[in-house]
Amino acid sequence: xxxxxxxPPGVGKGTQANLLSERYKxxxxxxxxxxxxxxxxxxxxxxxIAQYLNHGALVxxxxxxxxxxxFIEKHKxxxxxxxxxxxxxxxxxxxxxxxxxxxxxxxxAIEMHLNETELIKRLINRRYCPQCNKIYNYVTNPPHQEQxxxxxxxxxxxxxxxxxxxxxxxxxxxxxxxxPLVGFYKAHRIYERAEATGSQEEVFxxxxxxxxxxxx
Length: 216
Ligand SMILES: [Zn+2]
Fold this sequence. Notes:
By secondary structure, the chain is an alpha/beta fold. The protein has nine helices and seven strands; from the N terminus they run E-H-E-H-H-H-E-H-E-H-E-E-H-H-E-H. A hairpin with a 6-residue loop joins strand 5 and strand 6.
C-alpha cells in the first residue's frame, strides 16, 4: 500500500510521517531527509541542492523525481509512505507514470492543514537533531533537556531556512506549487484532509483513522 502525506511547512508532517511509518511498518520516502543527507555528503549534487535550499527555493523536479523513482523501484514490494513528495503537479504526473510502469498505485493522498499564524509560530520554534533527524518544537514538543536530543544527546540545530522571511516565502511557494494537488487527487477520488490542530497523539489518531478506512 502506498500513502502520500502532504502539507505546508510547519504542519508537523515530518513527525507524523515517522509515527505512521512505525505504526504501519511502512518504508518512508522523505524527500527532505534525502536532500539534507545529500547536502551533508558534500557531493557535487549536494552542493547544487544546498544552493536552492539556502535561498528557500525548490529543488528542480528532475532531481526530485529521479530520487523518488530510484527509491520506489528499490522498495516496490514494501508499503511506502511518501512524505513531502510530490510537491507540485509536474512531480505528481511523474509519479503516476512511474507507478503505472511498475503496476503500483497510490491508495490515499492526505493533506495536513493548519492556519498560517500557527504555522509560522511552529516553524520559528522548530529544531532538529542532525544525528538521528528527530524533530522537536519548543512550543509543541520540547526535548527533556534544553537544546539536546532525547535519543542520542546531540545538540539540536535550527534549519537555516527556518527564519520568518524565508518561512513566508516557503508558505507562498507551497500555496502556489503544492495546493493544486488537492484538485488533482480529488479528481482521482483519493484526497483526504486532516486538521493538524491538537496534540501529536490527536493528529496521529486522525491520520490513522483515514488510512484504516482506505485499507479496510
Ligand atoms: Zn538525535
